[in-house]
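Predict the assembly for these two chains.
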Amino acid sequence: EVQLVESGGGLVQPGGSLRLSCEASGFTFSTYIMYWVRQAPGKGLEYVSGISTDGGTAYYANSVKDRFTISRDNSRNTVYLQMGSLRPEDTAVYYCAVGAIWGQGTLVTVSS
Amino acid sequence: QSALTQPASVSGSPGQSITISCTGTNSDVGGYNFVSWYQQHPGKAPKLLIYDVSTRPSGVSHRFSGSKSGNTASLTISGLQAEDEAEYYCSSYTISSTWVFGGGTKLTVL
């Protein structure tokens, strides 16, 4: 079955860090550019980051640049999102996605 | 990286057709044929309806179609059904090699 499964979300204090993981199965992970997209409560979708097939090139939304780092491990079929200097406005469901394949999302809550 | 512009809401009766617009700039919608449309029901992950402006993934109903003219892309849903009631988002590849989404359009089936 083709699927993406995110994990690592939770409650974190402002200024803190969190690492999200997304494990892929059912398709040739290493041949796809992978993305993270987020959705704040009651709000629309927002592109967060993307990473090339070999992990050598990464792209970020201005809102997370210099605070978030995307990476991937093709041997583990997993893409990561290391989030730092977290702010309340980073509170959202974070989705891992590639084309028509989306995970179920993992909720990150930044609050004291 | 300004969000693409979509109407906040549209409505239609069962059986009718509706069109949702998505306006960007030459740096995104107008510059690339990489516009996608997603449908999202409450509490669910988005579902890809259209990619590359007008291509439907396998399994997506032929009632959904996409087009583009200049800096504006459009999603048309024909033969509206009750289950089409959802939020719809457009997205486009950008000159910065990132993607940008529209603000979303809530479709109400009357």
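Chain B has a mean pLDDT of 96. Residues 19 and 76 of chain B are 4 Å apart (CA to CA).
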